[in-house]
Give the backbone structure.
Amino acid sequence: MPEPGVFSRWWTQGRGPRQSEHGPIAVHLHPPDRGPAARWVVTVARAPTHVDASLDAAVLDVDMKIEAPAAGGAPIRRRLRLGPDEYDTIDLEITATDARWTDPSDGHHVVRATARVAAEDGRLVSQVFDERVVSLGTDDPPFEIVADPASVVVCAGGVAVGEIGVANRCDVAVIADLDVLAPWSAWESIVEDRRRLALEPRSVTTVPIRFEPPATARAGRWWWLVRVAVGQHVLYSDTAPLVLAVPDLDSDV
């Protein structure tokens, strides 16, 4: 399972402005022009946190781990020390030591670079990552919402559960961020509007979406959908009706 962390190129996901957990280190993977078995470059850059002034002037220890599971071998590790506004690059030669890199029927392979950032006193500051998918011999997307939301009808004070299905066609597990979207009038009905998912390799993950409108919720007909972000891949489901109904006071149920 990938180590926890935040995606370094957050702006590609359309999830709002830079947050404090994205700094003070940025990690960018630069793939070769063509083919997986070639020179990759990892750029590691330092920027002010604008949150903790004591860190802005400090030298930070960066523990890098670069993984390319389909290329075989152990993860590549590097240790860097970066002062304010400094950057460094890591040149990688990812070779085709495993037949899966050259077999065009094998599909999608993940290359991931993770930076664990610590202060000089050893305190963990942040953990950020970048990842790219190398797709060979397939037109299928590496990630896909394969089960869209269905209509949900729920009474004020009641409970209803919808679900969606997310496919990961890659050769390793990945981390995904899921947002449940709905109009403002229905937003308070969503129990968990943002969550992190672990998507197992070559499998479909079914995710339950729970709705619990408060007893004071106004009846009406709205909609809901989900957005799933896996690295630079952003998926949107179809919309489905979300109906907040008036409870039947004469019912024994």
